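Q: what does this look like with adenosine-5'-diphosphate bound?
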Amino acid sequence: MDIIYTIWLRSMIRYIRSKSRIVGSISMPLFFLLFLGFGLNSVVRIPGLGENYIQFLIPGMVAMSVLFTSVFSGIQIIWDKQFGFLKETLVAPVTRMEIMLGQTFGGATTALIQGIIIMVISLFVGLQVQSVIGFFIALGFMVLIGISFTAFGIAIASRMEDMTGFQLIMNFVVFPIFGLSGALFPISSLPSWIAPVTMIDPLTYGVEGIRYGLTGVSQINPVLSFMVIGGFACIMTIIGAFLFRKISI
Amino acid sequence: MTPAIQVHELTKKYGNLVAVDNISFEIKQGEIFGLLGPNGAGKTTTLSMLSTMQKPTSGTATVQGKDVEKNEDEVRKAIGIVFQDQSLDEELTAGENMDFHGRLYRIPPDERNQRIDSLLRLVELYDRKKDIVKTFSGGMRRRLEIARGLLHHPSVLFLDEPTLGLDPQTRNHLWQYIADLSKEKHITIILTTHYMEEADRLCDRIAIIDHGSIIALDTPQNLKNGIGGDIITIQTPDFNTATEVLSEPWIHRIETHNDEIRIFLMNAEQHISDIITRVNQQNITIHSVSIHKPTLEDVFLSFTGKTIREQEINGKEMMRMHMRRGKR
Ligand SMILES: Nc1ncnc2c1ncn2[C@@H]1O[C@H](COP(=O)(O)OP(=O)(O)O)[C@@H](O)[C@H]1O
Ligand SMILES: [Mg+2]
């Protein structure tokens, strides 16, 4: 436990110090929120929410910010590899499982904070949190998304030598996961051939869970969402730990 | 007393490349032991196996009696290591880097803080404790890494090219630290280097390593004595004739290397004029003459037929070829 905490602590110190990263990873969801949100607010009709696209979009943007922050936190292992710091951790009398879990929780915490920042900003553009319980449900889903995708990032980083493959992963894996997740558009209004793809995207369940928590309305039963994203978090952690165990420097 | 390190027929292969080739040696408690050899000789790979970071292909090694493969955790607790390439977190302060290390090695908080302060004082970085490592010079980073490597009181310290890339003044300073450390803390130090002077000045015993094999192992003095006296180096275009005219009983041995002849003999000062006279009588041009006491460079040269520098250039070529092959 103390080792996991140590690794987590380092992630936190680094996070607090990286002002540019904090601002950078807030700017994109914020941009989406303002332009898409206000631009389409009166055009798009959302089932259950009526003419309130912004209410619909906010949970999606929170999920987006959590997704990108956590993937990035996981991928950070590559920097540690390149700057040599990973060796310092690997040569210590600790297990790789502890290192991996510390890194995962660190990434998830960072992602959670980023998501909360978006949530707070959203209060000014119309977010109305329905209940305290709802708020905590949303936080729970954010944590699960954070764990899943930090572990995903660690898994990727364990197999990559340097950052050259990073853009590829972003374009062909992370953006599609985001785009197909129902963060931007309601699942029921998608063309029928895309809907099944959306249903196999694990992030869909995370987004729907946050949406349920924040707005009280969702198209997927929150219990199902919880089981899918929770299961996905476990599987990714196992895969991440497995690949990290075999990391070579 | 068990030796600090025992290495028996240790081998590491990367595909077809034999990075470490069947080496065996022992290091005594409290000794400063050097692995001296050109780039690519296999020094870092050897340390990687001893520090449990790489699995040997064959052979065995123990650190403080613990097998590096079977008893990984015990070995890790017993060693401190300063890697060849920097391994600090540049975004953290010196103190935070130390603290992180102390926590990883589960040193209780009070003890940890007290040791951090005293070690930072030792390497003269105490007043920079709260500064981010990014702002540190190469020498300061190296000192910080050494302090960090000592934090958990290892009984064996590994230093991989501790002064690589540092300016001469900082290098001298670090040598002093390392020598003092070994005396005051009674820890065993194994260091790798391709600087002759470093090995000579610091090490109690040196293993000269080339192409993965140990080609000589002894005290620096014995290694140099083994050369056979002093060395007179004559630069001449006509080194074959020059070699022929010099056949005196007091000449121990003659080697030619590039456009130089290297004459090994005792009491070179007494014989130098004699040698020059003989060469002159044959009308052989002499570009330059020098006398020197044998250095480890001479030892390396006499064992491998190449200077370390030449060997390194070869090594780099080999590495490039290796990489090209790898890419295809
Ligand atoms: N991970 C690796 N994969 C393939 N070859 C390697 C690896 N590490 C080292 N080598 C090769 O092994 C040889 C010895 O390298 P190394 O131990 O780093 O030498 P030194 O530290 O003496 O400079 C070199 O030829 C190097 O290219
Ligand atoms: Mg090396």
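Chain B touches chain A at residues 51-53, 73, 76-77, 81, 83, 85-92, 96, 100-101, 103-106, 148 (CB under 8 Å). Confidence is low (pLDDT under 50) at residues 324-328 of chain B.
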